[in-house]
């Protein structure tokens, strides 16, 4: 008997319960199918980081921190700064998380969050260059996941976006010899838009927004779509072994834009008034 | 890296006040919260100066792989880990040698307090995650972990409380912070089982003569007692609300 | 009844001194009795114990537990009973003595994912607890919703002589089966079930409150009956239900008694069983 088996055994009763409720347009926790759980974003929780926030989405809880230093650009993009997003599901976050390097799920998670930020053009990376091909800002966003209760994709994305928006990074200038040196001046990152990720799970014929762990255990497929300020979709990822009909994909896209607006105003409020 | 004890005169001024405004026998502000992580069987969050540390307990639970189980007691496993954003320079998330050693001494500091014989063939996992580090993170982590173990309802002989003393600018001080740790002359982290006064962690990094050692040890122990009071308050507050005084019946 | 003093304690705290018997969650160190858990110490004339408010479920013989079938071999099912130990349900105890792995198939009776109401019939810590599903009120649970609470709070959810169960069942028109392992099954219409779950979660979160019954009634919109019920609530403070169970056997002295299958069906529609025989 392995612990792994424990994860996949969902009570027969639960399946029945959930499909009954979904047919009535409601869920185990009383939410409607397209309702998010309560989202709380607290900014600047880690003073040592250049930007940080703690995100709670229902019982899913995580902390993101931004660290910035100088680096060398990639040879194929000498005129762009570096942006690296990583995530770790800490072993304290769930009985099923194991200590060790990130597994494929966690790497997918970080890459999808990264894609939303990169493809929306949230950060103008061309402004993060001191000397083309030589010295650029390297922005690291690390996400530590503290408690897992579903929808890590959206929670991670909101944490990365909010911590980047709050970041104040040291300004570097070039000295007489053309070498970069740190100044005391702190500046914000060049933010151009606020990308918002909306993840939906398919259980039977129903698409539900912001699934909990329990709902994820029963979902057949998952779709994450990221939209920007203007309502353009800019990143996406279908996940899990199941499929979606084309109608479901279209429905997911329209929900993503609609819900994205709601979430964007929560993020703005937290960052600018927090 | 040994203590250089270089120019540390600026760390304590002529009035005996330290760089952060504390007296030499004063602790940094400490705050403990219990039961904050939903999934964990027990959890605690401690702020100790600038340290922000989360501790969580899972277990007792089945052991994997099975052959590492013991027939007559539970196996205690500890992991001390720092988040990449917890330090001045971004820290590589892979565990360093320092983190592995601290994991080990944390386990050995907590183990004497636990009645592991009550849970044969199982494992108890303790995870300490440093979200922001300052000096003394191992002590703060151990104190938080002990509270998390009590929160998990694991049978314990005693609570473990930890605090460091050290030597800075030629003087013995209580509770060494980050700057003092880097520029000071000695650091002596101590953990004790509070009611029985047994030492479960002792490390020494730097030089102390016998008199200084005795003084540092006694100050560290008094620091542990203060930490204990806060641990107790946090646990009682978590389970019985803040109105403890009203409901308490005389012994 | 002799005077009992109550006091909050944490592990390591001295609960009493001298020639007093150590009951649950108390250990003797020389002349003192020391708590080993966070909880309410009950210091009687000649015996002390600590009623804990957290902690894992450790099986005890005769406990009613709600389990989830997670695996099976040729001779037994394995059940997750919300403990660090897995429950073993031997095939022979379900099929009878003449069980033969060659002709009988375990999955005909119980499948992985099925919930069962079972009783612990043997457990001695050197091997996993042995379960049985034969007996009134035991068996497969065909419907209902599962909620988990802290096993240490089960006595509060049952309440004094089952008063809390009754309050929730009547207030939500649903029925509950409460395992000593903290797994609760609720049967009712979807709306009623949702309300019952909220009530159960409230008990889990507020187990230390002296006015827990009132809080539950308030949530369920019940006006408390003005008669004798009130007097009981006054004394319904933490741990009081264990007092009435003192005459129970030592095995269950730490908590209120296991719900007997008859009590379990004490709701309105008692003719309908939550579990079904196999």
Strand and helix layout:
The complex is a heterotrimer of chains A (274), B (251) and C (278).
Chain A: H1 3-8, H2 12-23, E1 39-43, E2 51-57, E3 60-71, E4 82-89, H3 104-120, E5 129-131, E6 135-147, H4 152-166, E7 168-174, E8 180-188, E9 196-203, E10 206-209, H5 213-218, E11 221-227, E12 233-239, H6 246-273
Parallel strand pairs in A: 4-6
Antiparallel strand pairs in A: 1-2, 2-3, 3-6, 5-6, 7-8, 9-10, 9-11, 11-12
Chain B: E1 30-34, E2 42-48, E3 51-62, E4 75-82, H1 97-110, E5 122-132, H2 137-151, E6 160-168, E7 171-174, H3 178-183, E8 186-193, E9 198-202, E10 205-206, H4 210-240, H5 244-247
Helix pairs in contact in B: 1-2, 2-4
Chain C: E1 5-9, E2 14-17, E3 21-22, E4 26-29, E5 32-35, E6 39-43, E7 47-52, E8 64-72, E9 76-80, E10 87-90, H1 92-95, E11 115-122, E12 130-132, E13 139-141, E14 145-148, H2 154-158, H3 163-172, E15 175-178, E16 183-187, H4 190-205, H5 212-220, H6 228-234, H7 240-244, H8 261-264
Parallel strand pairs in C: 3-7
Antiparallel strand pairs in C: 1-6, 2-5, 4-5, 6-7, 8-9, 8-11, 9-10, 11-12, 11-13, 14-16, 15-16
Helix pairs in contact in C: 3-4, 3-5, 4-5
Spell out the key features of this protein.
heterotrimer, A: 274 residues, alpha+beta, Ribosomal Protein S5, domain 2, 6-stranded mixed β-sheet, 4-stranded antiparallel β-sheet, 6 helices, 12 strands, 31% helix, elongated, disordered N terminus, C: 278 residues, OB fold (Dihydrolipoamide Acetyltransferase, E2P), Ribosomal Protein S8, Chain: A, domain 1, 6-stranded antiparallel β-sheet, 8 helices, flat
In short:
With 251 residues, chain B is an alpha+beta fold. Chain B is built from five helices and ten strands.
Q: What is the CATH homologous superfamily assignment of the largest domain in chain C?
A: K Homology domain, type 1
Number of domains of chain C: 3
Q: Using only CA atoms, what is the Rg of chain A? A: 20 Å
Strand portion of chain C: 25-35%
Could you estimate the helical fraction of the residues of chain C in percent? 10-25%
Q: In total, how many beta strands of chain C?
A: 16
CATH class of chain A: Alpha Beta
- Global geometry of chain A: elongated
Q: Extract low-pLDDT stretches of chain A.
A: 1-6
Counted up, domains of chain A total 1
CATH topology of the largest domain in chain C: Ribosomal Protein S8, Chain: A, domain 1
* Main CATH class of the largest domain in chain C: Alpha Beta
CATH architecture of the largest domain in chain C: 2-Layer Sandwich
- The arrangement of helices and strands of chain C along the chain is EEEEEEEEEEHEEEEHHEEHHHHH
